[in-house]
Amino acid sequence: MRPGVLLVALALAATPALATADGGGGADKVAVARAAFEKGAAFASEERWGDALAAFSESAALRPHATTTYNIGYCERALGRAVRARKNFALALAQDQAANGAELTPELRAASKKYLEEVRSKIATPTFIVPPSVTVTVDGRPLEAADAGLMLAGTRPPGPGEKVPSGHFVVEVDAGAHEIVIVAPDGRNKVAHEYFPAGTTKDVTLELPPLPPPVLVDHGRARRTAGYILGAAGIVGLGVGGYFGLAARSTWSDAKEKCPARASCSDQAVQLSTDARKEANIATIAFVAGGAAILGGAILILAGAPPTERPRLGAIIDPRGTAFLSWSGSF
C-alpha cells in the first residue's frame, strides 16, 4: 500500500469520531455520513480518486469533520487540482483547531501541513487587472472570494461569471494553461489564454474591445431624399394632368363635331361631353396635386441642405415690369 493511501486508511480508523451524534434523526444522518466515508476510503484504497472524492464530499455534506476534509484534499491532490487541495488541507487544519485537536490524528495533522506546503508549490498567483463592472470566469467557472483581495480559480462549479470586488486582485490558480473570459454589462467580452508557471506572480491585464462608433443620422440628407421623391411624384402628377388635359380637349372636340348646332345633340355627343368633363376634372386634380408635391419637395430640399449649400429662391422684376422666380445655389 502506498504511503498516501495508508494515510487515508488511518483516516478510516478515526471514523468513530463521526458517530458522535445528537440522538434522534441526527443519528441516522451520521450513520449515512459514516457509510459514505467508508465507501470513499474503499475507493481511495483502489486509487479511484474521482469516486472517492464524490463519496467523501457526500459524507462531509452530511457531517463536516476534519478527517473527511483531509481526505477530500488528498483526493484533489491526487487529481492534480492544487488550489482545491490547498483549500481543503487548510480547512482540515482549521476544523481540527476549532475542535481543540480532537478531529485529526497526529499523523493526519502532520500530513495536512506537509501536503499544504507541497501543493502551494504548484500554484500560481497572478494579479488580474480588469475594467470595472465586468464578470470573470476562469476555465468556465466563476471565481471564489477567499481572503481580502484574493480570489480562487477552479474551486466552484462551472457557471456564468460573476462581478469581482475590484478591478485589481490576486488569483490563486493551478499552474498551467487557462482560459479567462471577461464580459461587460453591454455585452462586450474578451477571451484570453494564459499559461501560468508554478509560483508566477505576473500581472495579467485584460481589456475590452472598444465601443463601436455611434451611428450618426443625417436628418438633412433624409429630408433631401424625401424632397427628391416628393418632387418626382409631383412631376409624374403633372404628366398625368397633361395627359388627361389633352384627352379632355380631344374628347370635347369630338363632342362638338357630333353636335354642331347644339340644338339637337345625339346621345353619343352627350356621352363625349360628359367624358370630356371627367377627363378635365382628373387633369385639374393631377395638376394641383403635382404642383403641391413639387412645392413640398422643394421645401424639404431647401430645409435639408447644409447652410453653405442651401439653394436660394427669390423674385426678380426686369425693367419692363415682368416678374419671375430666381433659383441659385446647389444641393
Would you kindly provide a brief summary of this structure?
The chain is of the alpha+beta class and 331 residues long. The protein has helices at residues 3-13, 25-45, 49-62, 66-78, 82-98, 106-120, 219-258, 267-304, and strands at 123-124, 127-129, 135-138, 141-142, 144-145, 150-152, 162-163, 168-174, 176-183, 189-196, 203-205, 312-317, 323-328. It has 3 domains: 3-121, Serine Threonine Protein Phosphatase 5, Tetratricopeptide repeat, CATH 1.25.40; 124-205, Immunoglobulin-like (Sandwich); 219-328.
Notes on the protein architecture:
- The structure is a single chain.
- This protein is α+β, with helices and mostly antiparallel strands.
- It has helices at 3-13, 25-45, 49-62, 66-78, 82-98, 106-120, 219-258, 267-304; strands spanning 123-124, 127-129, 135-138, 141-142, 144-145, 150-152, 162-163, 168-174, 176-183, 189-196, 203-205, 312-317, 323-328.
- The strands form three sheets. Strands 1, 2, 5, 6, 8 and 11 form a six-stranded mixed β-sheet that branches. Strands 3, 4, 7, 9 and 10 form a five-stranded antiparallel β-sheet that branches. It has a two-stranded antiparallel ribbon with strand order 12-13.
- A hairpin with a 5-residue loop joins strand 12 (312-317) and strand 13 (323-328).
- The longest helix is centred in the C-terminal third of the chain and has 40 residues, at 219-258.
- The mean pLDDT is 82.
